[in-house]
Specification:
Blueprint (H helix, E strand, L loop, with lengths): L1 H25 L15 H5 L15 E5 L18 E8 L5 E9 L3 H13 L4 E2 L4 E2 L2 E8 L3 E9 L4 E9 L6
Antiparallel strand pairs: 1-2, 2-3, 3-8, 4-6, 5-6, 6-7, 7-8
């Protein structure tokens, strides 16, 4: 029963990170209003970039970025897999536990992604929880102590694996 609660927390972290990324990507800096489409605003299309500004409504210490690692991202905790491209990342050190999320893509099989992160997390004392899939999706959960969790899920197409990693960890783990 304890594992179910841990999976729920990991799923909540991933959902929160996704919502934070969506909010950051859709809110222009300093306005607090939804972005105007570039079709109706030529200046917006000239200024588009792959990095979204932090949301003005986000708490200090919370950040999300598209196409890069956010400043302060705990790369020791969640290293970037060699050859992987960062799709988005987020980091919220204002919560207890702190939440970290990484979405990446790579031209490697899902099994290779899971093997890389299993080794990286095991080196930090995380233990894999039984289970390798959620439905047909490769997914793996990890637990360290009683309340630090990491979930990795991988969606594989013909040539590309897109992976999502969500972590809920103690504040000391992200320093």
């Amino acid at each position: 029963m304890k594992v179910f609660g841990q999976r729920k927390r990991a799923a909540a972290a991933i959902a929160a990170a996704g919502a934070l990324l969506a909010l950051a990507a859709c809110t222009p800096a300093g306005t607090g209003s939804p972005a105007t489409s570039s079709a109706s605003n030529p200046a917006a299309s000239a200024q588009s970039s792959t990095t979204a500004p932090p949301s003005p409504s986000a708490e200090p210490g919370t950040s999300a970025t598209v196409g890069a690692l956010v400043p302060g991202f705990p790369q020791k905790l969640l290293p970037q897999m060699p050859g992987a491209k960062v799709v988005s990342s987020s980091f919220d050190k204002t919560t207890a536990p702190a939440t970290v999320a990484l979405v990446g893509s790579i031209t490697a099989p899902a099994a290779d992604v899971l093997a890389y992160y299993t080794k990286a997390l095991a080196a930090q004392g995380f233990k894999p929880v039984p289970g390798e899939t959620v439905g047909a999706l490769p997914s793996k959960d990890f637990l360290r102590g009683d309340n630090e969790t990491v979930n990795i899920s991988v969606m594989q197409t013909t040539d590309v694996s897109t992976f999502t990693i969500g972590a809920n960890v103690a504040a000391e783990s992200v320093k």
